[in-house]
Amino acid sequence: MAAITANDGCPDRFWADGFLMSRVQVADAGYLGKAVAPPRKPVIVPFPLYGGLVNWVQTVRSCVRCRKVTTYFNEMFQDGQVRGPYAQLEGWTQKMPQQLRQMKQAEAEALFRRIGITFAVYGEGGDPDRLIPFDMFPRVFSAAEWARLERGVKQRARALNAFLADVYGRGEIIRAGRIPARLVYQNKAYEKAVVGFMPPKSVFSHIVGVDLVRTGPDDFFVLEDNCRTPSGVSYMLENREIMMRMFPELFRENRIAPVEHYPAQLRRTLASVAPQKCSGEPTTVILTPGHFNSAYYEHSFLADLMGVELVEGQDLFVEGEFVYMRTTEGPRRVDVIYRRLDDAYIDPLCFRPDSMLGIAGLMDVYRSGGVSICSAPGAGVADDKAVYTFVPEMVRFYLGEEPILNNVPTWQCGKRDDLQYVLEHLGELVVKEVHGSGGYGMLVGPRSTKAQIETFREVIIANPANYIAQPTLALSTTPTFVEEGIAPRHVDLRPYCLVGERIDLVPGGLTRVALTEGSLVVNSSQGGGVKDTWVLAE
């Protein structure tokens, strides 16, 4: 049962167990068509708990006043039937007693802890190395669904790299008036130090993480692009490894495309963009800020799987036209640096002089063709959330194609009309910082109190250009193991596109799941978890 109470601020909004339902969204389809007045006191409304799968239908939230309905696409069930990609999983769950599920969940947590799959949240006390919650119910895509996603992600990666090559060169898209010059040249992620320089193969962003959400059988939207150092690929790999250990029968009964070749693909991609002065087999290293970084586990994990050295800034030095690595056998030349730290810290002579994490003189060697940096300094201007709104135009301008994947409608608070709309509808929108990440610095209007909305309103007014706003999407749900059984939870997806001499996309990705009932926030730092992502082979 879910307690539905009237929201004092608006007669058409209700609170349901801490979740503010837009337009008085009620979590039970049985209220459709009934003349129910907004309650003045708490009312108990039936809320089905999906302990099994037999009668599990789409989550429906309806407005009892205006009869408008918000339907969340259920990726496992459609029209009362199990969708094809999930057909083999229905019997699997029905044969799994509660005790076995609890035992398997404990086993998964023990494996994560033993392997060391942890993350940290800056600014919080408590355990600095915490486990990310893992849900054992996989998310499944058919081969046809993935084929479309693959085309769309690769198209987007090509356009983003063309844009970066352009804005650090002639700036044709700006000359043509397709994107405002201020968004690029006044962007804090735009690095003047690389203007006029073209990296090998004209690739600036070598690992593109595209965050996607689904709202229907054929409806996918891009939430944002990650062109610098997208994280999370270690979870994609370890989720698969743990699922194969715990449920080998599932992989015997289903043809699931493998993901374990990603490290080898990444190494080939990095080697393919070796600098001009490289002769012979390139030496690749992963540059990490150190073990206090929240993603340090991933850095060491990838280095191990790729068979390359994990280094910190103090392990490298510049001499003449090249970068060298200190080893027990003496200096060794480095050709490709996969850096996992921000632009500002990679070279104290070029960027922040107080940086203790980078290599003095690195940018001089980079610009002279003595080393490749992946992803290139300055790539962050392409994943700015204000620039994001123009990616479909980039696709048309550089590729002469129509975008396969759509953007989410976005308002730029730096525009007067957009700002006015956002301020008038804060309770209905998601507002983000243009350079924000990790779920921080954002407002989820339908989940916020009046006080939180008013506080954030002042923050936006103080610096409108720093914010964009998007509607609250009806994110799809997938079956998720909860304490009481199985229930729908909202998910997103981050596939990893590798760009070098060729463009590769591993058949899978990182599925993040909002484990809190009703929540749309999937970030691990905000209480989200992860799932294994299956792509069924043809």
Written overview of the protein:
- With 538 residues, this protein is an alpha+beta fold.
- The chain has three domains: 71 residues, no CATH class; 402 residues, no CATH class; 63 residues, Dna Ligase, domain 1.
- The protein is 26% helix and 26% strand.
- It is built from 13 helices and 32 strands.
- A five-stranded mixed beta sheet has the order 12-32-31-28-27. Strands 22-14-13-29-30 form a five-stranded mixed beta sheet.
- Helix 3 packs across helix 11.
Radius of gyration over all CA atoms, rounded: 24 Å
Helix content: 25-40%
Q: How many strands, what sense, and barrel or not for the largest sheet?
A: 5 strands, mixed
In DSSP terms (H or I, runs of 4 or more residues), the helix count works out at 13
Strand order of the largest sheet: 12-32-31-28-27
List the uncertain runs. 1-69, 122-126
Give a topology summary.
Blueprint: E1 2-7, E2 10-16, E3 19-21, E4 25-26, E5 43-45, E6 59-63, E7 69-72, E8 77-78, E9 81-82, H1 87-94, H2 98-115, E10 118-119, E11 130-131, E12 134-141, H3 143-167, H4 172-175, H5 181-185, E13 207-216, E14 219-226, H6 233-246, H7 248-253, H8 262-272, E15 284-287, H9 296-306, E16 309-311, E17 316-319, E18 322-325, E19 332-334, E20 336-339, H10 362-367, E21 372-374, H11 391-399, E22 406-407, E23 411-412, H12 416-424, E24 429-433, E25 443-444, H13 450-462, E26 467-471, E27 477-482, E28 485-494, E29 496-499, E30 503-505, E31 510-514, E32 528-535
Parallel strand pairs: 12-32, 14-22, 15-16, 15-20, 20-21
Antiparallel strand pairs: 1-2, 1-5, 2-3, 4-6, 6-7, 8-9, 10-11, 13-14, 13-29, 17-18, 18-19, 23-26, 24-25, 24-26, 27-28, 28-31, 29-30, 31-32
